[in-house]
Description:
By secondary structure, this protein is of the alpha+beta class. It is built from 13 helices and 18 strands. Helix 4 (115-124) crosses helix 5.
Amino acid sequence: MAVGLDLEEIKKLLAETEAFAAFSADELDQCAAQLELVHYALGQTVCRAGDEADAFFLVYSGRARVVADTESGEEMTVGTLVRGNHFGEQGLLGNARRHYTVRAASELDLLRLSREAFERLLQTRPELREYFSRYVSDLAVRNFLKLCRLFAPLSPAEIRGLVGLLQTRSYAANETIFHEGAQADALYILRQGSVRVVQQSRADRVVGRLREGETFGLTALLTGRPQATAVIAEEPIEVFMLKREDFEQLVAATPKFKDALAKVAAGQAVRPTAPLSALPAGVSQSLATGKLVLPTGALPELPTTKPVTPATPIPSKNGFHPKRARHFPALLQLSETDCGAACLAMMLRFYGKHVSINRLRELANVGREGASLHNVAEAAEAVGFHTRGLRASYE
Length: 395
């Protein structure tokens, strides 16, 4: 629904917006005259991902949420727009469809500039195209990082700071990013393509595959030990690199990121293979208090779980049951939402099957709240188990 225009107020807003700050008074008049003020109620959708890009928008008043669809089909907020923020330029510049859904988070008034008017504006001010191209590139990186599980706890300001620390690298198909035994020099975030994780010491045995948005090199950075595996590009890929010194700076300056890593460290510390008393000096106290102090020592590397020979069934009165095992495989979950996938992965390892947690996350449709018991059961069925859900108490 269109509402009345206050041209002087709109010109003032345009002049305060970085994209239009260099406009002359006459140019501001011309631009303001082409804008339409439109209103959206709380919860109303402005545009949906996949829609044709037909306009540029500038927030006049209120708030809007930018929403992305995750692989599990759930929605995730990647940004909030307030007065002076703009959106819609990405699809217009690339002549593409919208990448994100935008929804009113309050009563919302937007200034709408049609595609035709936006293109005329870029023709008269070529530098504006350059500005929007830089803005879109930076925004795409920030939204991509926000969707990465490791960086999800970071605030928008912290994400912006992280963007400035990242370096971009490209690798050809079958090119090695790092070899097994190499010293850890960076955290890698896979931006495009897929890689395989290989144990070169075991005849190039493939132990996992990673896709867009996943990270690698983290364990070696935390432990200070050489890389336990090699990572090789399966196709042409692009990665973000966060150098060791920048990683340590981020850990020291960002409590939320530090806490997330501390949870990973605590999970390693309680493993029987790495008792707290056996940790390097200076680390055990760090873990005992739930805090990660990266410069003071190295955390123990999570050992690779060896295949376990399937237990030989023995007859019993009620059927066949595996023998009791003295040792069971143990895997580390990076996030508390991974518990179902991690449990299923450990069960598979017990029976000599190696399926990555990432693959099991997909099968179980793990979202930000984890996975339902029904989805975990379906994932188990998909990898060969017979499952049946039971209602039970803690007792």
